[in-house]
Write a structure and sequence with these properties.
mainly alpha, elongated
Length: about 100
């Protein structure tokens, strides 16, 4: 199936955004979480959200500001989630037994 010109432009623009901001997103999520594996997951989730919400970007701020706000919110949501709390708790008790 052929891409329309507009779809190709959007695809190219999103590729550029990923290449340009991937490291910034990962670094910022790492600052918040202090966990490299969690930062990998958050970074992937952030760019999925960027793809899904690309048309809602209102250009009231820079793309970087918008993406880093998504990063902050996503990282905070990960830290608040019950999944993360269970994993952290299990890891805490596992470390106790090894001492």
């Amino acid at each position: 199936m052929e891409e329309t010109f507009i779809e190709k432009c959007i695809h190219d623009e999103l590729d550029y955004v990923i290449k340009d901001y991937w490291q910034d997103v990962w670094n910022y999520s790492f600052i918040i979480t202090k966990d490299p594996h969690l930062s990998d997951d958050i970074t992937q989730d952030v760019f999925i959200k960027v793809f899904k919400n690309w048309n809602s970007f209102r250009k009231e701020s820079s793309i970087k500001t918008w993406i880093l706000k998504i990063t902050r919110n996503t990282a905070i949501n990960y830290l608040k989630s019950s999944y993360f709390k269970r994993i952290s708790l299990v890891g805490f008790f596992s470390d106790d037994k090894q001492s």
